[in-house]
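Thread title: Can someone regenerate the structure for this chain?

I was given the following input by a collaborator and told the matching structure tokens would be attached. They weren't. Posting the sequence so someone can regenerate them.
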Amino acid sequence: MKCISSLSRRRFLKGAACGLIAAGGGVLSELDVLAGNERIRWGIIVDARRCPPDCTACVDACAKENALISTGRPNIDPQWIRKLRVTDKATGLVSNFPLMCQHCAEAECVKVCPTGATYRRADGIVLINRHKCIGCRYCVVSCPFKVRGFVFEKVVNQAPGSPRGAGTADGCTMCSHRIDAGGRPACVEACAKVGHNAMVFGNLNDPTAPAAKLVVAFGTTALRPDLLTDPGVRYQGLNP
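Best answer:
Regenerated them for you:
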């Protein structure tokens, strides 16, 4: 799969060294250097080898947590996270993995938004200010991962932690309301609850965090690395 390339252990450690110098003593990762020397970079490491093709625990949990109810029209239903099945034509390797907002450091959706409605928090989470969103959908079109949506119809029975409104852009928040309260994203929690543990959430800039340790020990892959978006969601078990 040419759209995926590897972030090697050597590159990660090299980036951490650069971050150490730049921060004057703080141990930072390559991701931190690319994202502007931030102390916290929330991210999710997904191990495709642990992701069964018939499991939808993460999708179901996301829908429940954020009150994403079907409209009866699949083409416009909210889809903050979805399962993909990808076959490598060169090797025949079949991979199953969840795809959601990649929470990129160099997010195209942020760059094209004319009002600043789509923005990136200091901790790396990309969100939408629905009071500023004018519904132009530039962000929807510009997202290379096709994970940004749009709310076409009036929303009822909204979830308090993730309000949504007709006429505005829509997408995964990495469950920022949960994170701000000291928790984990609903998808990550659900994956662990069913015993797959295919998703690990944490601070990618903290060398003691499980997510960062996975990057150092095994390396990760980024989707569409040629676009240099520096995603906060990284994958393992995919062919480089």
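The first helix runs from residue 9 to 23.
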